[in-house]
Amino acid sequence: MIKNTSTTKNLLYVYNMNNEYFLQSLINGDNKGVSKIYKELYPKIRGYILKSDGSDDDAKDIMQKALIQLSVRAQDPNFSITSSFEGYFMTICKNLWRREIKKTKLRVTNDKVFDLVNEELEIAMSIYEQEKWELFREKLNDISTNCRELLKLFFEKVSYKKIAEVKNYASENTVKQRIFKCKSKLKESIQSDIRYKDLKHF
After folding, report:
1. What domain range is 153 assigned to?
2. Which of 16, 64, 140, 180 qualifies as a FRET site for 188, CA 20 to 30 Å off?
3. What share of the chain is helix, strand, coil (3-state, %, to 5)?
4. What count of other Cβ atoms lies within 10 Å of the Cβ of residue 118?
């Protein structure tokens, strides 16, 4: 079976170019690039927050925090995004919102407990999320090239039909089977790493 690696590389090249453009915009404070991030992603973030019992102000706050958090991460010369910028940024926003919900519950339950949720805890959680992401990225790079490309397309929410066309597979079922096997290999690789146990029980 001949694989259409050229088309796959072209798709991944576009993703990487967008990632680099947005990251550089954050690093350099490029208003045009940052405005584009807002234009493309804020409606989706707002929709997610509103569906999760948040408000417009919550959405704006989470968007701002995510931009700051990613700007800090992007300062590291070894930092890169192997999935799409949108997928990675949305994950940051969702994690921040889940944390915000937990903090709100603590405020309602016990004001004294909320006092403990301070800047140091925020920093610790950011480091924790970064370590989880770095472990995932490392293990993703360790699996086979074909699995890595398949999973990247899957994480980008490319349809099974489109993936079958790009990779020249016989059917969508074949794609699903390959993705399942690749996800299993990635999961096994992550869970067998000693760092996983530490992160799991954080």
Report:
1. 132-202
2. 16
3. 80, 0, 20
4. 9
Contacts of 161 (CB under 8 A, 6+ apart): 172
Backbone angles phi, psi at 168, to 5 degrees: 60, 45
**Cα separations (Å) of 17 from 20, 34, 56, 151, 167?**
5, 15, 31, 18, 21
Task: Please give the structure tokens belonging to residue 191.
Answer: 């869970």
Helix axes 56-74, 31-51, angle to 10 degrees: 130
- 90 with 185, same domain: the answer is no
Q: How far is CA 71 from the centre of its chain?
A: 14
* pTM assigned to the model: 0.47
Query: Do the domain assignments include residue 7?
Result: yes
Number of domains the chain contains: 2
27 and 113 housed in the same domain: yes
Is 94 domain-assigned?
yes
Please state at what angle helix 172-191 crosses helix 160-167, rounded to 10 degrees.
90
The CATH number assigned to the domain holding 166 equals 1.10.10
Classify residue 127: in a domain, yes or no: no
- For residue 182 the two structure tokens come to 């690749």
